Amino acid sequence: MRPARNTILHGDCITLMQCLQSGSVDFILTDPPYLVNYRDRHGRTVANDSKSDWLRPAFAEMYRLLKPGGFAVSFYGWNKVDAFMDAWRHAGFRIVGHLVFAKDYASSKRFLRYTHEQAYLLAKGPVREPRSPLRDVLGWDNTGNHLHPTQKPLRPLAELIGSFSQPGDLVLDPFCGSGSTLVAARRLGRDYLGIELEAQHHLTASLRVHELA
Ligand SMILES: C[S@@+](CC[C@H](N)C(=O)[O-])C[C@H]1O[C@@H](n2cnc3c(N)ncnc32)[C@H](O)[C@@H]1O
Fold first, then answer.
1. Best probe residue, ligand 1, of 38, 197, 202 (max atoms within 8 Å of C-beta)
2. What band does 122 get if pLDDT is binned at 50, 70 and 90?
3. 168 CA distance to ligand 1 centroid (A)?
4. 54 near 84, Cβ under 8 Å?
5. Number of domains observed in the structure of the chain
6. Per-residue pLDDT band at 3 (split at 50, 70, 90)
7. Which terminus of the chain, N or C, has less C-beta within 10 A?
8. Residue 2 confidence (pLDDT)
9. Is residue 196 in a domain?
10. Ligand 1 probe mutation, 17, 30, 46, 192, most atoms within 8 A of CB
C-alpha cells in the first residue's frame, strides 16, 4: 500500500510499516526508545524501553520503506550503541555520520554530567552529498518534556529535515511520540507520516501537528 501522507497511525510500527510500499519514503528521522528503562521524576516511562526484540525488525522495515539513495537519522542510547549498530547494519544501512546535540544543562549526573544527545546518520546505498553540509554538532533546546517524557526540540529536527529532504518529500517517524518530527516537517513544507504505539501520545501528536496542543 502507498503510505498515506500527513497522517499519524496508531499502533505497532513494525506491523504497520509491513503494510507499506517499499521505497516510498524520502527521509526518516526517528527517536526510538533508548533501551534504558527510562522513568522520569513524575514516574513516566517509555513503551518498549526495557526490551530490544523490536530493534532489528523495526530498522529492517525502515530500510525497506526508504527510497534507494535516501538518508535516515536515528537517535539512540549511548550506552546501547552496540544493539543499535547491530540493527542498523543488519538492516543494510551504511553509517555515514554521527551527530552530537550539545545541551546547556545536564539531563543526569553520575560519572559525568551528561550534557549531550546523539544520533547516527544512515544511508541506503549510494547517496548524494548535501550542497552545504550541516555541522555534526547541533544545538539543543530544553523542551521541559511537557508533552512527552522524552520530547525532542524542534530546532535541530528542522535543521536535519532541511538538510536531508526537499519540500514535498515524505518524512517518516515510526516512533513519533508527541510528534516533534512531524511538526518540524510540516512547518518546512514536507509531508509526514508518523506512527505511535501509545494512545495518549498519538492523540498529543495528532493535535500538535495541527498546532492544537
Ligand atoms: C523516545 S520516544 C519519542 C519522543 C518524540 N521524539 C517526541 O519528541 O515526543 C519513543 C516513542 O516510541 C513509542 N513506541 C515504542 N515502541 C513502539 C512501537 N513498536 N511502535 C510505535 N511506537 C512505539 C513510544 O510510545 C514513545 O512515544
1. 197
2. very high
3. 24
4. no
5. 1
6. confident
7. N
8. 87
9. no
10. 46
